[in-house]
Amino acid sequence: MAPWRSRRLHRMTDIRLHLGCGKRAASGWVNVDGFKQNGVDLMWDLRSRLPFGNAAVLMIYSEHVLEHLEYEEVEVLLAECHRLLAPNGRIRIGVPDAGIYLRAYSEDRREFFESLQHLGGAARPLTTPIAVINQSFRMGGAHKFAWDFESLRAAFERAGFTAVKQFPSGQASRADLCLDDPSRAFETLYVEAVRPSTEAGGNGATEA
Asked: pLDDT band at 7, cuts 50/70/90?
């Protein structure tokens, strides 16, 4: 599909927004990515304000995107997602879970690291646990921030979201919000949050 004109985008409502879709564009969603490829509806730099109206979006999904942004850029993007979502709209984010790697390291789980010697397409085998951790956290400079649940929950809450909850891969609050890539299940932290129906009505409570 050819990229849409911004005036048309601004008039759209009841949108399901897939940010950083890559090669996994989803039917029934507005698929946004920084690179032109099959299925991408809108080429866009997610560090810029998105061309949709306030409260025009029903749900937002993004997987393995936030780690490619600086922390401050993620704060801006989450605030933008809050603007876009309708009251009670829901967002689901998947990021590499830094805690998985750090727990495996502290528990000396060598078998975990041995299975990841070519993580991220590493040409030379990653022969030590700390080499695997560096690859996950840095990915040749492409990764900018290592996330865990506590840090992502805090970022959601600062952006005005409530009901922040972690989900296993393949499980979501609603089936149509689950676009999870099964090949990434072993390392991915999935977190959902809600834009409250009224800003004053959100109680700030979170669920573990």
From this structure: low
pLDDT band of residue 9 (cuts 50, 70, 90) is confident
Give the tokens for residue 97: 């879970």
Q: What is the rounded distance in angstroms from the CA atom of residue 163 to the CA atom of residue 124?
A: 42
Contacts of 109 (CB under 8 A, 6+ apart): none
Query: Residue 202's pLDDT is what?
Result: 41
Tokens of 111: 């078998």
The pTM of the full predicted model, rounded to 2 decimals, is 0.90
Q: At 25, is the secondary structure helix, strand, or coil? A: coil
Helices (H), the chain: 6-11, 71-84, 98-106, 110-114, 129-138, 149-158
Q: Which two tokens stand for residue 121?
A: 């397409």
Work out the pLDDT band at 185, boundaries 50, 70, 90.
very high
Lowest mean pLDDT among 67-71, 140-144, 163-167, 198-202: 198-202
- Residues counted in the chain: 208
Helix (H) or strand (E) holding 96: strand 85-96
Distance CA 158, CA 79 (A): 8
Domains in the chain, please, with CATH?
6-97+147-194 (3.40.50.150), 98-142 (no CATH)
